[in-house]
Amino acid sequence: MAADRRILDVGLAHLYARAVLAIARADDEISLEEGLRLVSRLEARSGRPVSLDDLLLAEPLDPAELAAQLRVSTSPFRGAGVHPSELAAMIVSDSITVVLAKGHVSEEEARELLRFAVALGCSVDDVRRMSAHLTPFLAALEDSIAFDAAPPAAAQRRRPTKRKPRGAQGT
Fold this sequence. Notes:
This protein is mostly helical. It has helices at 10-24, 32-46, 52-57, 63-73, 84-99, 107-119, 124-130, 135-144. 54% of the residues lie in helices and 0% in strands.
């Protein structure tokens, strides 16, 4: 079951972490609570300590890039591999857990989450079955997302800069 499965491959765990971060960043803000939940979910999934500062410095991950990297790294002979649909379920579940730290899922977060799930081969119905939290957004988003094209200019995000979660102490 994806809910408690660990990602043993270090490279795949890093891609997964960048995907969850991209979804959490979709509304251009990561609260302290979201940051803490993000680290907690990533550490639980990978079984390794995670540095939020290092993760925030990583290049932003695009859904198409994640899918392409998975195609390159996935092989039927890799024992610790995770099927793309299983990874999508982990990303959906964990991203919702992270963004709900602030009490709601924003439209931007729902849109980005859907883009990642579809890039990994899930249908909108698959995503709908994964989470009732996205139901209010899915009907509106289904028609507005061009999955094989670049997002419309209004939806394109600027390249995020390193930001500490709100309320974080300076180091």
